[in-house]
Write a structure and sequence with these properties.
Blueprint lengths: L3 H28 L9 H8 L1 H34 L5 H13 L2 H12 L11 H29 L3 H10 L4 H12 L1 H11 L1
Helix pairs in contact: 3-6, 3-9, 4-6, 6-9, 7-8
């Protein structure tokens, strides 16, 4: 056994406890709504509240739309850059990092200013417009995470060989991306989706 291993496990244990203890304490506190015992009444109150259900379903819809739009943009773009334009990778990586460079609050105020009711594209006048604006903002903020995950997934497979084999068998680009590349990077896709959320 090497000398550094016990210290590594100790460091890992301390780091894990740093994250686990607050979560356990918060969960236990949520179960102690009444004195003298544990109860799930707090969760029942929250999940039975119609306002919570409406807010949760709205958030879930925005999240699903964000992930789907992000995948629709990132998977073909990363595939194309990896296959046809590898010299563009640094530029694409820089572009995808821009939402991380600009603070989120600045982006929010920029979107509100750009798409408010007095602009050329007034998205804040309706519920649908507001939902579209939120989705667009979340897609922009999630691009760096989605692109990194998808690009890492594409690095683990031989994109050139898979594409050539699919072309020989008569597949078009849509079929190649959806039925050849996508199933091979599904773990990266799920990782990017969870990081985006």
């Amino acid at each position: 056994m090497s000398r550094g291993k016990p210290w590594a496990w100790l460091t890992f244990g301390i780091g894990a406890l740093y994250f686990i203890i607050p979560l356990v304490a918060t969960f236990e506190f949520s179960l102690k709504i009444r004195k003298g015992g544990y109860t799930l009444d707090a969760y029942a109150n929250v999940f039975n509240d119609p306002r919570f259900q409406q807010t949760f379903s709205y958030s879930l819809l925005i999240a699903v739309c964000t992930v789907l739009i992000g995948l629709f943009i990132v998977v073909p773009a990363a595939y194309y850059v990896r296959l046809r334009a590898p010299k563009l990778r640094p530029i694409i990586e820089f572009i995808t990092l821009l939402p991380l460079i600009i603070p989120a609050i600045v982006l929010v105020f920029g979107y509100i200013r750009l798409y408010n009711s007095s602009s050329l594209l007034p998205l804040t006048n309706s519920n649908f417009g507001t939902a579209a604006l939120l989705t667009f903002a979340y897609v922009a903020l999630g691009l760096p995470y989605m692109y990194r995950a998808i690009d890492t997934g594409l690095r683990t497979i031989d994109v050139q060989t898979l594409t050539e084999a699919a072309n020989i068998l008569g597949a078009n680009q849509f079929t190649i991306i959806t039925q050849v590349i996508f199933p091979n990077i599904i773990v990266a896709v799920l990782s990017g989706a969870f990081l985006t959320l």
